[in-house]
Design a protein that fits this description.
Protein name: Oxidoreductase molybdopterin-binding domain-containing protein
Order of helices and strands: HEEHEEHEEEEEHE
InterPro entries: OxRdtase_Mopterin-bd_dom, OxRdtase_Mopterin-bd_sf
Organism: Albidovulum inexpectatum
Radius of gyration: 22 Å
Structural class: alpha+beta
Number of domains: 1
Keywords: Signal
Number of strands: 10
CATH topology: Sulfite Oxidase, Chain A, domain 2
CATH superfamily: Oxidoreductase, molybdopterin-binding domain
Strand order of the largest sheet: 2-1-10-5-6
Largest sheet: 5 strands, mixed
Pfam families: Oxidored_molyb
Distance between the termini: 61 Å
Strand content: 25-35%
């Protein structure tokens, strides 16, 4: 093998090695919603599937880890069973980095929720109540529900005000 040919092979090997060394693992892209969009997350997020936003249909939310909370609420009669995505898992899924969640309902009612509320054993983004999807008439399709009966800290006016139903937008900010 001639010297120029050896140099060519060495250069190609070096370029390949550098490409492997500096390659960053690609973040999993969020799929596009196939059904009606029921939740849009914007702001300080790393994962998007629309222009500056992460959009979710019901099937996409159901594909995320789910948790069921059995609790009473001040808005319903008797113990209820809520199923949905832990708020912490949802924020992790989109790579949220802000400290405040501006949660907005279909009717534009809005509330600020500290991102620190999104902790293990904390609120879920409920998409089912008592085993059935929630209609807009029944506070759906999404409702931030805290495990009110599990801890007296969840039975305050501040927490009740953060329990927004008919949720359709979250903006993650500082």
């Amino acid at each position: 093998m001639t010297l120029p040919r050896i140099a060519h092979h060495l250069r190609a090997a070096l370029i390949g090695a550098l490409a492997l060394l500096f390659a960053q693992p690609a973040l999993a892209d969020l799929p596009r919603p196939q059904g009606p969009v029921i939740l849009t997350i914007t702001g300080q997020i790393a994962e998007t599937n629309a222009e500056g936003a992460a959009e979710f249909d019901l099937d996409m939310l159901r594909a995320l880890p789910a948790e069921t909370i059995r609790t009473t609420t001040i808005w319903t009669e008797g113990e209820q069973e809520f199923t949905g995505v832990p708020l912490q898992a949802l924020l992790d899924h989109v790579g949220a980095t802000g400290t405040t969640l501006r949660a907005v309902a279909i009717n534009d009612y809005a509330v600020d929720i500290p991102a620190s509320d999104a902790a293990e054993g904390g609120p879920i983004l409920a998409y089912e109540r008592n085993g059935a999807p929630m209609s807009v008439r029944d506070k759906g399709p999404l409702w931030i529900v805290y495990p009110y009966d599990s801890d007296s800290r969840y039975r305050t006016e501040v927490i009740y005000s953060r329990s927004i139903w008919q949720l359709n937008r979250i903006d993650v900010t500082d």
